[in-house]
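Quick entry between incubations.
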Amino acid sequence: MKLSKDKKILIVGLGLLGGCYAMALKKQGFSVFAITLSQEDVDYALENGIIDKGTTKVDEEIIAEADIIVFALYPNVFKKWIEENAHLIKSGTVITDVTGVKECIVYDIQSRLPKGVEFISAHPMAGREVGGVQNSDDKIFKNANYIVVPTESNTQNAIELCKSLGETLGFAKISVLSPEEHDKMIAFLSQLTHCIAVSLMCANDNEDLVKYTGDSFRDLTRIANINDEMWSELFLLNRDALLSEMDAYRETFDKLYATIKNGNREEMRDMMCTSSVRRRKFDKKN
Amino acid sequence: MKLSKDKKILIVGLGLLGGCYAMALKKQGFSVFAITLSQEDVDYALENGIIDKGTTKVDEEIIAEADIIVFALYPNVFKKWIEENAHLIKSGTVITDVTGVKECIVYDIQSRLPKGVEFISAHPMAGREVGGVQNSDDKIFKNANYIVVPTESNTQNAIELCKSLGETLGFAKISVLSPEEHDKMIAFLSQLTHCIAVSLMCANDNEDLVKYTGDSFRDLTRIANINDEMWSELFLLNRDALLSEMDAYRETFDKLYATIKNGNREEMRDMMCTSSVRRRKFDKKN
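Done. Structure below.
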């Protein structure tokens, strides 16, 4: 089931990502509506042609008009919204999301929906260090990965529709993972990297270092400027997978530490070679 | 003492950095000579107008003709070269280097030079993930930092000349640090970051992750493709400073780990805020 241009799409939560979705879909000619907390964001999006209509209320009419609803909310806010408002969603609607953790929300939300409403979860792996619809820019989807995260209760139709949404948004690569696979992958590739960057910035408060720093430190800590509200929630919602990746990483860090302490140059070079070989694979264009 | 255009400059070691020095200096009209191991590199540099003359031998005439000698060698190779050939350097010559560790080499080399020859050490904080004169590109100096690393035995004249060399090469910022300050700074900003990137790549061998990865992982591990011969030498030559920075970092990593394990969201968010505030200072243009 391809995403056809006559579909009306409602974005719930017009922050950075919600704004990027709206922007990309509007450009392609879709009707885009929004429900979000602040009137200022609605006004901004209307003035800049990012949405067709928007409201700060949980508006039954807009919800009923939508064929597809994209939830661009923090995980716990998304859960709460569904608990309170799921009954307003009309049968036949497909809902999706942008949430960065899956196992802890996908099954729960699928179980709370009215008959005929299907939730197909997705994770757009794109973002910026700044938030808000005012910073939205759909170029962030270019060259980025989009992951569809179905469960056994999803239909093939909804999975195809969700893939088609990812293509329409402009993502370079669309993949499919189970919620459990997704969370393990994200613990390593995304959450652990943020933990490392935050720990490094906390380890040394010498501001003078700015004037000596090179690109390697800047690149490695780019993500250390972090949205603490969102990421602390994501970390706790994926706690076991994250702790397990942190354990594995600390083990190799300690191993490298020991090679330096003991002057074991051969083993140190072995680790560096392993690292180089693996890293070169990540250079490849996807 | 400004670096005047009539100075003849000899580069010993025509690898990536030596090649960048030669390229930048030739463009500005200096006479540039080179001594390096491989005839292929000499030929390449001559054919591409990067040097005026070059040789694979320790040529007494070229050494005597040079006013300034830049050693772009690995630290231990540099030391060995000086032990064997220092007597060939004529009085009045100023020598400098590009070495990434200082305390363990600067004093030693200064003590081995003939009378009238002065060694003023420097660290150009620029590089690429690829080596060799064939990959040289003097654009890497733009926006980069150049650190002059004098000891008490250096003259003001040589310090000024070395600063002037950094400006001529096109560095954005020239700083001065003692060898001890330099090594502590480099342990944190450069060596620790390389240890982190290598450890992270060694912690997980799942090649499939390539297709899900986002920019944060790619940026954080860019330096994990590492020259194992050079970096293992640099790590061991700066062992105490590096181990101490690794200890401090592991302490904050463990602290963050504990906040996740114990669900202590407030402390986790405090660390993220500290991290964000500090990281934003590194966004500033120098």
